[in-house]
Design a protein that fits this description.
This protein is of the alpha/beta class and 252 residues long. Helix content is 53%, strand content 15%.
């Protein structure tokens, strides 16, 4: 039985990826801050689950998570932990932003590097980094979150090419959804401007794409077209459009 480690497994996409992998027979290691939610999820699933309660905004706990698990055969690492913060850059809370960067960026970077070394040594394994369609553009009034997801997208792409050059059988993938029906916007202090996809559908697409070793996974035909259009649009026009969308989110 293959084993997957999923961070951010207590809610949203991380929780539904756990459900999807369990339905496919995977053994799971569930990591997040909220023990009660992890225990509830573990009771729901039908494959072996181990719970790791940790705060991924604390580097020492991120490293301790790896130290606790690195001798186990983790075949798939899913970096799904993360959150956003809506508002004008001048007014958003600096400490909250730094906490977000530690979760969205530092924890993902550390776990990717440490587990990737083990996978490359075995020449087997996969990593799925959960980013966002925001990772392909800038986001006024959501600036730090967008910047963090740009980092995740570009880091994953660079690692993919390094592994290709090395001839490694290890794969890395990046999930880049648009709006998803989770508690993300409530935590970020914003509302959806368009109808979101269901988290279960996104999780199914994410697992399918990862197991097929796809680099970039963008759920939904409409979002694929939106990302393509963003790549072709003039930069300043795209900034105005995104700024208007994100500013309106905060007003609703």
């Amino acid at each position: 039985m293959n084993t997957a480690l999923i961070t951010g497994a207590s809610s949203g996409i991380g929780r539904d990826i756990a459900r999807e992998l369990s339905a496919r027979g995977w053994s799971l290691i569930l990591a997040a801050r909220r023990r009660d939610r992890l225990e509830a999820l573990a009771r729901e699933l039908h494959t072996p689950c181990r719970i790791c309660v940790c705060d991924l905004s604390r580097e020492e706990e991120v490293r301790a998570l790896y130290d606790d698990l690195h001798t186990e055969p983790v075949e798939l690492l899913v970096n799904a932990a993360g959150f956003g913060l809506q508002g004008e850059f001048l007014g958003t809370d600096l400490d909250r932003e730094l906490e977000m960067l530690r979760v969205n960026l530092h924890a993902t970077h550390i776990l990717t590097k440490l587990f990737l070394r083990d996978m490359v040594a075995r020449d087997h394994g996969s990593i799925l980094n959960v980013a966002s369609s925001a990772g392909f553009m800038a986001g006024p009034f959501f600036s730090t979150y967008y910047a963090s997801k740009n980092y995740v997208v570009r880091l994953t792409q660079a690692i993919y090419e390094e592994l290709r050059i090395r001839g490694s059988h290890v794969s890395v993938s990046c999930l880049c959804p648009g709006p998803v029906d989770t508690e993300f916007n409530r935590v970020a202090g914003a509302t959806f401007g368009v109808k979101p996809m269901s988290s279960r559908d996104v999780a199914r697409i994410a697992v399918d794409g990862t197991l097929k070793k796809r680099l970039t996974i963008i759920p939904g035909a409409g979002m694929k077209l939106s990302v393509l259009a963003a790549r072709l649009a003039p930069e300043k026009l795209l900034l105005r459009i995104n700024g208007r969308i994100q500013k309106n989110k905060g007003k609703k």
